[in-house]
Write a structure and sequence with these properties.
two-stranded antiparallel sheet, NADH Oxidase, globular, alpha+beta
Length: 222
């Protein structure tokens, strides 16, 4: 086994007032983000999605394995196929008894149902797949902390999308196995999350729901 290689890391020193300004600006910017289910047909430049994926790709991951694949879908027929397959599963969730009543009650303030028009309306769908392992010559290479790693990368992606003025939604139709079939992904990749991406529709509205204050989710132990 070769010795690890290290390079210098010298981030610029930022004066305390500037640190606070940046922190508050970033908090306020992301605090204004909302999940969107109504999209404009306005095209999204491909370069923006490439940059968002590149941002996500810089996320930390277990053993630096980067166990993710981002599949960007703009084809209308393919988006329709994804919508139809998702609605089959979601209808079973909402009306077929898969989701218990308390779950449906918890979702009520969001106004969601099994209809998923946004999967066709959004100009792009970005489907993230997680790799539990990767085939290599002579066998397989295991990945580590896969769910945590892919979750962090998805968080980076959401932040990047919001930063550039686009909108998205963290959609997780359950079960999601149909995405592997529709997008012809290899068996070592498992669908993790589906992001419709685009500009909000001109008449877009979002649920009027609050977030917990930070004080409620923070514990200080001096």
């Amino acid at each position: 086994m070769s010795e690890p290689r290290f390079v210098p890391y010298r981030p610029p020193e930022i004066p305390a007032p500037e640190m606070l300004r940046r922190a508050r600006e970033f908090r306020d910017n992301l605090g204004a983000r909302r999940s969107v289910r109504h999209f404009s047909s306005r095209p999204v430049p491909r370069e923006l999605i490439e940059l968002a994926i590149a941002t996500a790709n810089s996320a930390p991951s277990g053993a630096n394995r980067q166990p993710w694949t981002f599949v960007a879908v703009g084809d209308r027929a393919l988006k329709r196929e994804i919508r139809e397959a998702a609605e089959v599963e979601e209808r079973e969730n909402y009306e077929g008894g898969r989701m218990p009543p308390e779950w449906i009650e918890a979702l009520a303030p969001l106004g969601t149902g099994w209809h998923k028009e946004f999967l066709e309306e959004a100009p792009l769908l970005v489907v993230v797949f997680a790799e539990q392992h990767r085939p290599v010559e002579g066998g397989i290479r295991k990945n580590y902390y896969v769910s945590e790693s892919v979750g962090i990368a998805c968080g980076y992606f959401i932040a990047a999308i919001h930063q550039m003025g686009l909108a998205t939604l963290t959609h997780t139709p359950s079960p999601m196995g149909f995405l592997s079939r529709v997008l012809q992904r290899p068996s070592h990749e498992k669908p993790y999350i589906l992001f419709p991406v685009g500009f909000p529709a001109a008449d877009c509205a979002v649920p009027d729901i609050p977030k917990k204050p930070a004080e409620e989710v923070t514990v200080w132990i001096p």
